[in-house]
Write a structure and sequence with these properties.
114 residues; Cathepsin D, subunit A, domain 1; mainly beta; Retropepsin-like_bacterial; 2 helices; hydrolase; single chain; 10 strands; aspartic-type endopeptidase activity; two-stranded antiparallel ribbon
Length: 114
């Protein structure tokens, strides 16, 4: 997965596709080096899931892409993501619906077409 912010890009490998999550979330410590950090204009929120809840801040990023799925000017949650296992990003329904993603569980693929 690629995330773009202010003319910088970062690749993240440990991506969880979560159709039960309304929003997508990036691990804060992994995107600080491209300038994604809490700023006064960012909104503070919280996310809740099986692993508990955590505070996040909401940041508008330039782009987010997985293969042929791409969004621009995308609002995403940024948080600690300390869930006890190694995840860089959770891709939620906000991204999946906006891109028209098709998930093929039999083939283990995600994209615009199967």
């Amino acid at each position: 997965m690629e995330v773009g912010y202010r003319d910088k890009e970062k690749s993240l490998d440990n991506v969880l596709i979560d159709t039960g999550s309304a929003s997508s979330i990036l691990k804060a410590e992994l995107v600080e080096d491209i300038g994604i950090k809490l700023e006064p204009e960012d909104t503070i929120g919280s996310v809740r899931g099986v692993g508990g809840s955590e505070f996040v801040y909401i940041k508008k990023i330039d782009s987010l892409s997985i293969g042929d799925l791409n969004v621009e000017d995308f609002k995403i949650d940024i948080g600690e993501m300390d869930y006890g296992f190694d995840i860089d990003v959770i891709i939620g329904m906000d991204f999946l619906q906006r891109t028209g993603a098709i998930i093929d569980l039999d083939k283990g693929t995600i994209g615009k077409e199967i």
